[in-house]
Amino acid sequence: MKAFWKVLKRFAAPYKKYLGGSLILNLLSAIFNIFSFALLIPILNILFKLDQTVYEFMPWSGMPSKEQIINNFYYGVSVMIDKFGGSTALLLLGVIFAVMTVLKTGCYFASSAVMIPLRTGIVRDIRVMVYNKLLSLPMGYYSKQKKGDIIARMSGDVNEIETSIVSSLDMLIKNPILIICYFSALIYLSWELTLFTVTVVPAMAWGMSAIGKKLKRRSLEAQDKWSETMAQLDETLGGLRIIKAFIAEDKMKERFAKTANDYRKAYAKVAVRQASAHPVSELLGSIMIMIVLWFGGTLILSEKAPIDASTFIFYMTILYSVLAPLKEFSRASYNIPKGLASMERVDKIMDAVNDIVEPENPKEINGFNESISFNGVSFSYEEGKEILHDIELTIPKGKTVALVGQSGSGKSTLADLIPRYYDAGEGSITLDGTDIRELRIKDLRSLIGNVNQEAILFNDTIFNNIAFGVENATMDQVIAAAKIANAHDFIMEKEEGYMTNIGDRGGKLSGGQRQRISIARAILKNPPILILDEATSALDTESEKIVQEALDRLTSTRTTVVIAHRLSTIKNADMICVMHEGKIVERGKHDELIALDGYYKKLHDMQAL
């Protein structure tokens, strides 16, 4: 339960007023319930003529005693019988009983309704916190995680927290109040019988705790299997073209069926344990009632009975009412471990360390004026596997620097260090002489624009994709950017023009069109530094020519880092850096590198062939 209260402390603080309202309403519900059942005693006495006592009114003085309250209550009922007759008195008591029941059920409903904003609010807060955390985490985090697993934690696990933990909160507020009120009434009616009853209750609690003991571990296993299922679904949707091309449908079906079956087995273990809780609690409750009924009946049949028969029936009614909140408690005892297992999985995201930290006292930066410098930079994704080694490179303002080399030589990694998607392991990267780790991340990235090999677009309109990241962009500005990117003409051919929805990841557009939208987005941002990562390598010749024209316009007035495999696209670069196994092995202009007859010449000759 300690972990449960820690979760509540984290998320329930903004909703204290709802907790207060629930406490008051539950207390009223319990009080109305007790008094409505108290009317059973005079009703039974009238029906069966069990009480022949003549009552006299006892004047109220100071704190009323138990005997005084009972006497005056019965005196009022006897006056009612004498005045209106037994039948009418019974009817009036029945009406009072109905009114009390309406008040009780009304407060009970209101106590649950007032918790709904808390329940929905906490779940929303958890989702928003997880989403915000995911946005803040560095790129390196996602290279180690399955996207389907993250989606499973964001959806299934958060839903489980709502179902298991937050819904249990209502029970944990309501049930202690009901139990305290009911047991207070039981003690008031007969402390001897209640003392005996209290000795039986722990056995019931022990039986329920035995069921919930392993539920958290089982739930963790089931949620892990669910994550595997979601991860495989995500892989399937992303790789449908390859699956169909290699006629691998049967293989994927078999693989998914195995994963789904593993989840079924894991969930079945949780479900069986969960399903056993209700019948066990029913059995234990019935045993408790039977034992108390036997002991109470023995007391009544004795010569010195502490309570009469009608009061004993009232006692048993209240005792039976105690069983419902006790069962609710038992339900919470096996629901909460399930939710805590899901919270544990969500917290693995929330507790993930973001090693790209903001500086405590960031330096101010006013644009980009001189150069970007790599000073002895080394980097590795995993310890012992160095990707970049001792990089020394200066990129002057307004110049175009191209990075070429074999796949895996570290070109993209080097470019990713500039906007701090990763931080250098050794050495430093400076912008106008200032270490980029001393700048606000937002300030740094506002100076940089990206155009990648795969155009990353969103399921939205063309206008919103171009204006992405630029606040209050006007239609005129978007059109101007699209024209520079050679995108305006094909956009206007669309039925809805700039308001056309381009589908998931821009799936309604061709590769060249997607890339031109991506370039228009970079043009509208108007950054002084531009990173082009294989921006034309996935295009056909005609599309490449159109996109290259747009890129030439984009790069003409900017500092540009170009990652390229096609050497024909970077012949005019101010400097070409040839990378091999994480090092810059050659640098210079195209003609100079050809004359060196080294790595670059070999790459050039291979492409010429």
Question: How is this structure best summarized?
Answer:
This protein has 609 residues and is of the alpha/beta class. 63% of the residues lie in helices and 11% in strands.
The CA-CA distance between the termini, in Å, is: 71 Å
Number of helices: 22
Largest sheet: 6 strands, mixed
- Fourth-level CATH superfamily of one domain: P-loop containing nucleotide triphosphate hydrolases
Give the uncertain stretches in residue-range form: none
Notable traits:
609 residues, alpha/beta, Rossmann fold, four-stranded antiparallel beta sheet
Kindly describe this structure.
It is a single chain. The chain has a domain at 371-608: P-loop containing nucleotide triphosphate hydrolases (Rossmann fold), CATH 3.40.50. Helix content is 63%, strand content 11%. The chain is built from 22 helices and ten strands. Strand 4 and strand 5 form a beta hairpin. The chain is elongated.
